Amino acid sequence: MDLRERIDTSRMSPYQWLIVGICTFLNALDGYDVLAISFSSNQVTEEFSLSGTALGLVMSAALLGMAVGALVLGPVADRIGRRRMTIIALIVNGAGLFLSATATSATELGIWRVVTGLGIGGILVGTNVICAEYASRKRRGLVISIYTAGYGVGAAVGGTIMVSLISSFGWRSVFVFGGALTIIALILVIVLVPESPSFLYNRQPASAQRRLDTIARRLGQTGPVELTPIPESVHTDSGIPALFNARNRRVTIVVWAAFFIIMFGFYFVNSWTPRLMNETGLSPTLSLVVTVALTLGGAIGSVIFGLFTSRWSTREVLTTFSVIAAILMAIFIFTAQWIALVIVVGVLVGMFINGCIAGLYVLTPQSYSSSLRSTGSGWGIGVGRIGAIIAPIATGALLDGGWSPQAIYVFVGAVILLAAVVLLGMRGVDVEANRRPTQAAEAVTAD
Most-buried pick from 65, 114, 222, 260 (CB within 10 A)? Predict the structure, then answer.
């Protein structure tokens, strides 16, 4: 039997959950990295005498790298392997973090943040697909939501650590610590994470049969693993142009638009909340506490999203989460005068905006055939990072232009509401049917 079918239909083994755990840890590095520059923003601004616009550019530097990394490295991962891409990306990411700690100017810091982002982009396109492919069909939505929750956990736990690091050793220690975490992640991937089964079936390197047999043993699967001929669909449904063929065009447009909008709101609230809460009168310490509340809510929201998808479709849950996130975003800043309330609302904002991110990570791999999965995920993530790049820069410009924090949050809430409108474009689209032609072709070839 095809190993992919065994994984889909069998109960998940401890080894599969270990793979999910490692991928989740890697996603947590992304959460840590985003808050690294956010939590360091006050000290970085003071040391380099930055304006709001200049700080926005520094905040967006890593996001630019992530966008380029996801767009360029997604198709590369489909060609060289998702595991190999993840290893290369971790090396690049670690180098960027360590070098960020040595920056002597805002320009230099921005350059190393771009390098860091390139690594993160490569990590995301690899681990998202690996995590999805080692999950059973029954648990896939929950698994991807757990994986996405890693971002919130990394941000929440990392944020708590950052407060101590910055107060004791200064902002540079935040990046050194992040680099050390990346080294640990690199070792875990090299030792414990196998290659994506679909890559081995679709590309069939010389070692494919041996590697599939090894994976099957580690999964506790008995019996021979069948290596079927490469399906014709690999040649017709792969590469960037395939994103816009008749089967994929509508889904691609909706996924890209939703990623752009949700990432815009997500990176706005995670990057600028400490500074804007401080502008409304909260102390720097309380502003960071509110930001940590955001990340704690995010970890909860991702898992809740996964639980909802066991009963309702991913699109329906994602649309609902988008509407609620938009409303909460608009009222968030107005609760700043009540400490307990702003923390509670912060948890809820994090819960629903992170739930939207989880939804996009669940929806995207479902929407494409196995030969196009990293490309589709990479381009969706990459387009989303463009929105993430624009958000901090636009916020800095609006702040310099005289906009109040209250007006900015209401504006971003309105932007997020557009995601719900965009997702209506998926009505009538059977995501699983969108994948079946490729899967059917694979089955015919196997026969």
Answer: 65
